[in-house]
Amino acid sequence: KAGVTQTPRYLIKTRGQQVTLSCSPISGHRSVSWYQQTPGQGLQFLFEYFSETQRNKGNFPGRFSGRQFSNSRSEMNVSTLELGDSALYLCASSLAMRSFDGYTFGSGTRLTVV
Amino acid sequence: DQQVKQNSPSLSVQEGRISILNCDYTNSMFDYFLWYKKYPAEGPTFLISISSIKDKNEDGRFTVFLNKSAKHLSLHIVPSQPGDSAVYFCAASVSRLTFGEGTQLTVNP
User: How far is CA A45 from the centre of its chain?
Assistant: First the structure.
């Protein structure tokens, strides 16, 4: 079966710009979660979507937002980019909410803010 | 506030020996613990988990131990193989996953 697809793989943006990242889950998976990975910080939870509704949110500023479509594909948006937003952004899909051992992660989008 | 900590950024072991990766946590509300493995340019993959009501779980070469009184989690890999070389993340959950910083394991042939 096809895995979790994240696009684009790499992105370079300038401070102050905004960016949209996309995540296509495994077919049949209805939950999509987003994580930010930075060196020395591990993965930090951004938000979880299930059935087009945000079900859980991490401790990130309002510049970080997301949505989920009826086909379970999800996007996350970061507005007014800062240098500190440079990171690997990972999404994970699963059949159900909080099915952490059923997570399938994508390969991530590497965002560089200059 | 780092609620899940992996104090060793790296670990190097010889092929065939035991690898022990450690993880400490501070939140006593965590009820489920997991280990993920990550190769370069790939997303993490689930390895093994343990519920807070257990103290040990085994899956082949991988065993996870949970010491609730010490708030300590460990992953044992026996025997270690070169293909095990990867970054290992521990994670803990209540309603969401909280990850540690990761430990780079290198298994030398």
Answer: 9
Closest-CA residue of chain B to A3: B43
Quick one: tokens of B67?
A: 């010491």
CB of A46 within 8 Å of a chain B CB? The answer is: no
Cβ distance of B43 and A92 shorter than 8 Å: yes
Closest to B92 in 3D by CA, of B52, B55, B54: B52
Residue A94, judged by CB atoms within 10 A of its CB (0-12, 13-18, 19+), counts as buried
Q: A82 near A93, Cβ under 8 Å?
A: no
Work out whether strand B4-5 and strand A104-105 pair parallel, antiparallel, or are unpaired. unpaired
Per-residue pLDDT of A32-84, as tens digits, reads 999 999 987 889 999 999 999 999 999 999 999 999 999 999 999 999 999 99
> How is residue A111 written in tokens?
């965002």
DSSP state of A80: S
Q: Indicate yes or no: CB of B34 within 8 angstroms of CB of A40.
A: no
Residue with tokens 């590497």: A110
Question: Is the separation of the CB atoms in A6 and A108 below 8 Å?
Answer: yes
CA-to-CA distance for B88 and B12, rounded, in angstroms? 13
**Residue A82 DSSP one-character state:** -
